[in-house]
Amino acid sequence: MRLRPKQFCPIHRSLSSCGREAIPKASRQRQMGVRRIDDPQHPRGYRELRSNGEMRKLLDRKIVAQNGICGICKEKFTDYSDFVPDHISPGDLGGVWRDDHSRQHPGGSVVAQRREGIELWLKRSRILKIQALKRRQSMASIAQENSLFEIDRELDTLLDEIEEEIESRGEASAELMERFQQFCEAYSEKADRIGRFLRMMEARVQYCRSEASRLQDRARSSERKATQTKYMVMYYLKSREVKKMEGREFTLRIQKNSQDSVRFSDETQVPMRYRTVAARIDGPLWERLIESVPEDLSRPLVASIQDATPSNEAIKQAIQNQIAVPGAEVYRGDHLRVA
């Protein structure tokens, strides 16, 4: 026979024996009505999460504080089930960064709103977003289709028309003011487009220069490897006294050069008369040199000039010393800075 659930066992003198062991109940962890979540990104340093009961209490206090009037549509509440809690700064309640604090930051607090008021607010905000999107599209099309000078000329024309209407009617028309606003925004967009274009071109120049330097290094490395490989093959063919080696696609052979080559055992001992000199000489020293040598030497020297670039530093120093430099002047220019 089996013992009943609440029958006392005469053997074990217990109510939970002989197959009637009690199942331990899991202890439930009580949660506070208001929990504080540490948030270093928040100016207050933490956020508050409220339970449904605490939110209801907070909502009741807000209804009394608002005198039973909706925070959006400004209509009086008639039914408790018609309003819901919300924030003055929307996007917090129920979101990832939810904060149920009654004073989350200056200017923001939980307010009571009617459901119809929320729908009206959403509809108005949707209409405002569509209008703002249309204005941005119109502004972007104006900035794209017109040059900077055309936009500036149109702004001058619109200003003249606005002044004429103010003088004749007392105020400018809404269409004219709206078009003027669009061209003002297009002017700013044009400046941003030019700035972005200049930044992109400067980045491209830097990238191309770095790529050119990188490719030059790779070219020198490849040339060095090719030369070393040629010398290795030539050493192999000469050491084996073989004239050529053939493959399926290429034939490698030792061939005499078309002209003689010079090999230096000690380059420092080569006299100066057997050297080609490339020197950079300042203008005054060059003039003194030409004047001091005979004409039969000065002519070859002058003829050997490949490039004579004006020295900016020498010209600036001469102008500073009140010496006129023919064909040159010193001025303080300006440049475009993109900030």
Characterise the protein shown here.
The chain is mostly helical. Among the domains are: 34-114, no CATH class; 146-243. 47% of the residues lie in helices and 8% in strands. The protein has 7 helices and 6 strands, in the order E-E-H-E-E-H-H-H-E-E-H-H-H. The strands form 3 sheets. Strands 1-2 form a two-stranded antiparallel ribbon. It has a two-stranded antiparallel ribbon with strand order 3-4. Helix 2 (115-145) crosses helix 4 and helix 3 runs antiparallel to helix 4 (174-239). The radius of gyration is 45 Å and the shape is flat. The termini are far apart. Mean pLDDT is 77; it is low at 104-110.
Biggest beta sheet summary:
2 strands, antiparallel
How far the N terminus sits from the C terminus, by CA atoms, comes to 94 Å
In what order do the strands lie side by side in the largest sheet?
1-2
Helix tally equals: 7
Helix content: 40-55%
Keywords:
single chain; 339 residues; mainly alpha; two-stranded antiparallel ribbon; two-stranded antiparallel sheet; 7 helices; 47% helix
In brief:
By secondary structure, the chain is mostly helical.
Strand and helix layout:
Elements: E1 34-38, E2 46-50, H1 52-65, E3 83-87, E4 110-114, H2 115-145, H3 148-169, H4 174-239, E5 244-246, E6 251-253, H5 283-292, H6 295-303, H7 312-320
